[in-house]
Design a protein that fits this description.
about 170 residues, alpha+beta, 3-stranded antiparallel beta sheet, two-stranded antiparallel ribbon
């Protein structure tokens, strides 16, 4: 999609939300299911099913990314999407945007070997490379917008309510 087409599409969405703020409340959905061993599937909208697996050393068959790698991929791609979106709206030409991300995890938390080790990431670091003919000041404004409005980044750095329920053999717990 061209930068102009992207700007037009986003403009229509922003206009719809401005006219009817209730439109801003969106719900995204995914359905997942354990398939075989630790391999799972994810179904989102009408897209093909995506597999999730673990590397062999974590009990998987290494057929696909694992969930924590997907989190890293979600952060990087969300930032890249936000760069494209805000650059289009702000009229900033982009030649290239690439994000390299590392997630540091203590496997003792995952395996319940140490109560002081969290099972999730203890640190995520990333490096974003932007290529553009725009001046540094303009690009810094773009960076500031992306880093303060990226949904996945926000989800990772802000406490978010997460709650669920479990049904065991047809009965809710």
């Amino acid at each position: 999609m061209s930068q102009e087409a992207l700007k037009e599409a986003l403009g229509k969405t922003i206009e719809a939300i401005t006219k009817n703020p209730v439109c801003a409340n969106a719900v995204f959905r995914a359905q997942t299911e354990l398939c075989d061993g630790v391999c799972c599937s994810i179904k989102v909208r009408d897209f093909e099913t995506v597999l999730v697996d673990e590397p062999a050393e974590l009990g998987g068959t290494n057929k696909a990314m694992n969930p924590v790698e997907m989190v890293l991929g979600a952060l990087g791609t969300c930032q890249e999407i936000m760069y494209a979106a805000y650059a289009a709206v702000m009229g900033i030409p982009l030649t290239k945007v690439k994000v390299d991300i590392k997630g540091h995890i203590d496997l003792r938390g995952l395996f319940a070997m140490d109560d002081t080790a969290f099972p999730g990431f203890k640190k995520i670091t990333y490096e974003t490379s932007i290529e553009s003919p725009a001046d540094r000041e303009t690009l810094q404004k773009l960076v500031d917008m992306v880093e303060s409005h990226c949904p996945v980044y926000d989800t990772l750095v802000r406490p978010v309510e997460v709650k669920g329920e479990v049904t065991i053999n047809g009965t809710k717990k």
